[in-house]
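Quick one, probably user error.
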């Protein structure tokens, strides 16, 4: 029987509901700062989330939505600087405590540490976003709880490509079947599945209608003793929230 040794956490939408009230707002602030009459409303941003990565999202928007728009000579540099300002505004929101962790996340992280499981971050967001989120929600030393921070442009191809998971597995020196990924989107699930990593999904408003047929378990959130989770796909028995024994059971029964 394969033993669970590590939890691999996605960030945006999984650790915290960062997209609608975090990244989306920060993108709009960055656009307004330089006088761009672009506004990503909730519906449009949901469509743009099909593109993984902030810089890639801006590029896609320019190519498909931003008309008329005169592209600057060095478009790549323009996008990079615009994304840098977006990150600045996003980090401000984190520092102000405006982006809390999702239900059950802090509890499960603490339980996993107590049980001797290793932790890793596997995300397409920037390393700065990760460190600020962890510090703002879990405390200044929380970054040290994670044996691997696989984030941003550390690999050439972002999710749904498996590269970021392959990188994390190599850093951890673990086999895919010894880990369990926690994701919130179909792109994240595809990435983990392609790398051979079993996956638990917690949906959000942007992802709840996506195809998660390859996931071990699909939930509305991880749950708490006083706030039970809803199972959308798979089986969790009588449990009201995700704990380490349930994760081990999922891996053993897959």
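Nope, works fine. Designed sequence:
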């Amino acid at each position: 029987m394969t033993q669970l040794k590590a939890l691999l956490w996605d960030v945006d939408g999984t650790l915290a509901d960062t997209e609608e009230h975090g990244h989306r707002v920060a993108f709009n602030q960055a656009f307004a700062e330089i006088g761009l009459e672009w506004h990503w409303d909730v519906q449009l941003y949901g469509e743009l989330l099909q593109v993984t990565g902030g810089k890639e999202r801006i590029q896609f928007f320019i190519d498909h939505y931003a008309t008329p728009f005169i592209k600057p000579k060095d478009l790549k540099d323009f996008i990079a600087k615009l994304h840098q300002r977006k990150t600045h505004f996003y980090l401000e929101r984190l520092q102000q405590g405006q982006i809390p962790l999702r239900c059950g996340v802090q509890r499960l992280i603490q339980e996993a540490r107590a049980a001797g499981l290793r932790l890793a971050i596997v995300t397409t967001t920037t390393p700065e976003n990760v460190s600020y989120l962890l510090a703002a929600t879990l405390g200044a030393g929380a970054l040290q709880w994670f044996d691997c921070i696989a984030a941003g442009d550390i690999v050439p191809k972002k999710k749904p490509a498996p590269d970021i998971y392959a990188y994390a597995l190599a850093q951890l020196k673990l086999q895919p079947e010894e880990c369990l990924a926690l994701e919130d989107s179909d792109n994240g699930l595809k990435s983990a599945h392609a790398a051979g990593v079993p996956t638990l999904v917690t949906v959000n408003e942007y992802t709840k209608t996506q195809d998660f047929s390859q996931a071990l378990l699909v939930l509305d959130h991880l749950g708490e003793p006083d706030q039970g989770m809803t199972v959308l796909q798979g089986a969790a028995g009588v449990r009201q929230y995700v704990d380490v024994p349930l994760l081990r059971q999922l891996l053993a029964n897959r």
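DSSP finds nine helices and seven strands in the chain.
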